[in-house]
Design goal:
Layout: H1 2-57, E1 73-77, E2 84-88, E3 104-106, E4 112-113, E5 118-119, E6 124-128, H2 134-143, H3 151-163, E7 166-170, E8 175-182, E9 185-192
Parallel strand pairs: 1-9, 3-6
Antiparallel strand pairs: 1-2, 4-5, 6-7, 7-8, 8-9
Helix pairs in contact: 2-3
């Protein structure tokens, strides 16, 4: 009987030590994940600072080194009444906008109040992508401009939409940059220059 009780105590001690070790591992994993996220966000800030520098100096072409897979990106504009999107490497439209140095705040994106004609807050913000639909920008070319859009472009739009995890919004000139994080690097998947407040 004594041997049986001793055996039970040894098993309980082993299990409880294992549990404590696992809890320690969970804490370590959680800390590592948090540190990794912090590093990624610091890297996003650094990448945007470089992009912002090119925008301010008028060296827009240099931004292309951040294009995902060195491919065309989705550019969204409203050349008239309608907002349209197309895949291109031509981002010369950015040269028509004014940019100035601004602090990138890692917080929820502001919302635009159409009635008041103002943002809920002003500045430059970065946050996770919420409710984006890249395909609708291509569909507007079909619906309103009566242009044909190849099925491959819709598929690419869906792929880029899925890849895009973070958005940087500049309220002063209403530009959004969409980013994906691949192979330890941030890349631009889309630039939205549509002034939806117009």
């Amino acid at each position: 009987m004594t041997k049986f009780v001793s055996l039970i105590l040894v098993i309980c001690l082993f299990v409880s030590c294992g549990g404590s070790e696992n809890e320690g591992n969970n804490t370590t994993d959680s800390t590592a994940t948090t540190n990794n996220e912090n590093e990624k966000m610091a890297q996003l800030k650094s990448v945007y600072a470089e992009i912002e520098g090119y925008l301010i100096s008028g060296e827009v072409e240099k931004i292309k080194k951040f294009f995902y897979n060195n491919e065309d990106i989705l550019v969204v504009e409203n050349p008239g009444v309608f907002i349209v999107g197309y895949f291109t490497k031509d981002i010369s439209t950015l040269e028509n906008l004014e940019f100035s140095a601004s602090e990138l705040k890692m917080e929820a994106l502001p919302t635009y109040n159409m009635e008041m004609g103002e943002w809920s807050k002003e500045g430059c913000f970065a946050s996770e992508v919420q409710n984006v639909d890249f395909e609708k920008f291509l569909q507007s070319k079909v619906d309103y401009l009566e242009l044909e859009v190849p099925q491959e472009e819709f598929e690419k739009a869906k792929k880029y939409e899925t890849l895009s995890t973070h958005q940087i919004l500049l309220t002063f000139n209403i530009v959004s940059f969409y980013f994906t994080y691949q192979n330890n690097q941030w890349y631009i998947t889309a630039i939205d220059m549509s002034d939806f407040s117009a």
